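Tutorial handout. Part one gives the primary structure; part two gives the three-dimensional structure as C-alpha cells.
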Amino acid sequence: MTESVNEVPVAALITKLEGTTKSDVAPTADWMVRVLMAGAKFPGFWSGEIIPPEDLSHHDWKLVQRFSTEDEAKSWQQSEARQKLISDFSAVPTSAGCKVSDEIANYDSTFGNVATAIVTDVKPGMEDAYFEWEVKIQSAQAKFPGYRGSYLQPPPPGRKGQWSTLLRFDKPDSLQKWFASDVRLAFLADANKIIEATHFQSMSNSFPGWFPVDKTTGEGPPNWKTSMLVLLGLFPVVMLEIAFLSPHMKWMNPAVGSFLNLVLSVVLTTWGTMPIFIKAFTWWLFPPKENPRETNIKGTIAMIALFLGEIAALWTLLLPKT
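Part two.
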C-alpha cells in the first residue's frame, strides 16, 4: 500500500491510447485500470484518473497518473512493471492499430466534471483485498454505458485506509443506472468484509452539503423536495431575525447588517433547523420504490400543513404593536 505523501503533486505521467475502436472498450478499460492500480502502488503516487473519449467518433483514451515529484513519475514510467503492462496490451488481438504514447507534464487540475464523490473507509489489514476489489469495480464501471471517467486518490496523510473516488457519467440517468445495476450491487455485497463504510456526496441536487444521498443509487433527493425543506427551515429563522435582531442593527450600514443577518441565517439553518427536518422527512425524501406516489403525496401534504402552521404561528410577529 502506498504511503501518502505530504507534498503537492507536481508531475503527471499522461498515457494516451490512440486508435481504439468501439469493440475495444472492454480490453481498453481493463488495461487502463490495471495500469492505474499498478501505479498506485508505486512510491510517490498521488492520484490517478481515467479519461475515456468524450466523442464516440474518436476513440482515444487517456490515463493521468500524478506523482509528488518528476523523478518519481519517471521512475514509474521506466519501471519494469509498467513496461510489462504495455507489452501485455500489445499482445491483445484487438490492439492492432492502437498506439500507446506517454509524456510527463506539469500537474494539472482534474479533467471534466464530477457527478459523485465516494469516500471509502477500508478495514485495517484489508488493504490488499480492497486493492483487488477496486481493480474489478473500476473495470466494470469503465465499460458501463455513459461512463465519462473516474479519479482515484489514496488515503491522505492522517486518514489511513480512506480512499477517494470521483465518478463521472454523461448524465444523471446513466449514473443512476450504474448505481442500481446488478453488477455494482454484487460488488458491494462482496465488499462487506473489506470495507468499513462508504460515504457518498452527490453533485446532482441544489443543496449537496445539506442533504444525504440514497445509499443504493447514489442520488440525492429531487430539487423540488430539497427546496421545500430548505424553505421550511429558513422561513422561521428569517422572521425571528427581522423581529428581534434587525431592530438592534439599525445603526449599521445596511450592507453590513444584511450580510450579518444572512450569515446567522445560514448558520442556524445549517446546524439548527435542517438536521431536524431532514431526519423527520427522510421517508419523504427517499420514498420506497414500491409505492413512491403515495409517499410523495403524503409528504407534500405534510409540508404544506407545516408551511401554513409556520405562517399562522408568526402571523402577528411583525405587525405594529397597538
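Part three, for discussion. The longest strand covers residues 11-18. Residues 254-280 form the longest helix (27 residues).
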